[in-house]
Design brief:
With 73 residues, this protein is mainly alpha-helical. Helices cover 93% and strands 0% of the residues. It has one helix and no strands.
């Protein structure tokens, strides 16, 4: 059986293509994971800000309510 360099080159190219495809799929998965993680961080920050302003609003309303009692009594 004779050794055919062309066939070996084709096989090497196939293996390179498979490795590249695997690498790209890993990169895509990592990118998607980073996007999800960043979105979660932004959501948590937004919720924290909303919670802060809600608490501030409730304190102001409570102060206004307590202030109205002092005026009426």
């Amino acid at each position: 059986m004779r050794h055919n360099p062309h066939i070996d080159h084709v096989k090497v190219d196939q293996v390179k293509d498979e490795i590249f495809d695997i690498f790209m799929s890993i990169e895509v998965e990592e990118h998607e994971q980073r996007k999800k993680s960043e979105a979660l961080k932004q959501l948590e920050a937004r919720r924290g800000i909303e919670k802060h302003f809600e608490k501030k609003r409730l304190v102001e309303e409570l102060d206004d309510y307590c202030g109205d009692d002092d005026v009426n009594h």
